[in-house]
UniProtKB/TrEMBL annotation:
Homodimer. Coiled coil: none annotated. This is Isoprenyl transferase. GO terms for biological process: polyprenol biosynthetic process. The lineage of its organism: Bacteria, Pseudomonadati, Bacteroidota, Cytophagia, Cytophagales. It comes from Rufibacter immobilis.
């Protein structure tokens, strides 16, 4: 039985999030510059998007550039931004053909103008697509998003549109960049690091974590299947006991 056949299609996560890490180390191992790793990450992105769409996953969020990544050397940041523009330009047609909608989360205003323009164009062009939503986290961090959400809510309170006692989980969720999306059920991180790195801090509250030693440029469809099989073998208890869950199923 192939890995793909082991996946229960009726029990797929609706939303998978990925921390695509390890490009620099991948390149270094090959005696190359870090940028070479970023360039070779595109194949992994393409495979993951394709596999997720084929399976019927509804949301795929990829952490492509964090707020903290702005602190990297300027030449690396510039190269990443350029790679982003050229990749979006090249891939928009494929996204459209495959009925995939592109969205982004993060501080779009912080992106270079050319990058923002390319991104907005692709988002607009694919906005009616319905098979899967591909979300790029760009200049994104969970804390940035939460600060942003609190400012929005405070503005509503100030304008008399929201009572402080009505600030509940639903209100906060609605003020996040991910307001329209379900929380990810599965988070994949490559390169073996056991941390969240300021990714979806609110949304990951009950997400299953899958960490692989594989470096991102080596990630392929099979590795997504592996993560999904692992996800499907877990018991998600949400604070309850195992016995309670078994009773509910019987
Ligand atoms: C992930 O790979 C890509 C980005 C953060 C943009 P890294 O560039 O972090 O690679 P490592 O972790 O240094 O190997
Ligand atoms: C996380 O990777 C951000 C992205 C994958 C875009 P980093 O390489 O920036 O994370 P840390 O700094 O090692 O935690
Ligand atoms: Mg890294």
């Amino acid at each position: 039985m192939s890995l793909r056949e082991k996946i229960d299609i009726d029990n797929l996560p609706q939303h998978v999030a990925v921390i695509m890490d390890g490009n620099g180390r991948w390149a270094k191992k090959k005696g190359n510059l870090r940028i070479f790793g970023h360039q070779n990450a595109i194949t992994a992105v393409r495979e993951t998007v394709e596999a997720a769409a084929e399976l019927g996953i509804k949301y795929l969020t990829l952490y492509a550039f964090s707020t903290e990544n702005w602190s990297r050397p300027k030449y690396e940041v510039d190269a990443l931004m350029q790679l982003l523009v050229s990749t979006i330009r090249k891939e928009t047609e494929t996204l459209s053909k495959n009925n995939i909608r592109l969205q982004s989360i993060g501080d779009k205003a912080a992106l270079p103008a050319a990058c923002r323009a390319q991104l907005e164009e692709a988002i607009e062009l694919t906005s009616k697509n319905t098979r899967m939503t591909l979300v790029l986290a760009l200049s994104y961090s969970g804390r940035w998003e939460l600060v942003n959400a609190m400012q929005k809510l405070a503005d509503q309170v100030k304008a008399g549109k929201l009572a402080p006692e009505d600030i509940n989980e639903t209100a906060i969720q609605g003020a996040l960049n991910t307001a329209e999306m379900p929380d990810p059920e599965l988070l994949i991180r490559t390169s073996g690091e056991q941390r969240i790195s300021n990714f979806l801090l609110w949304q990951l509250a009950y997400t299953e974590l899958y960490i692989t030693e594989l470096l991102w440029p080596d990630f392929r469809k099979e590795h997504l299947y592996e993560a999904l099989v692992s996800f499907q073998q877990r018991e998600r208890r949400f604070g309850k006991t195992s016995e309670q869950l078994q009773k509910a199923h019987s």
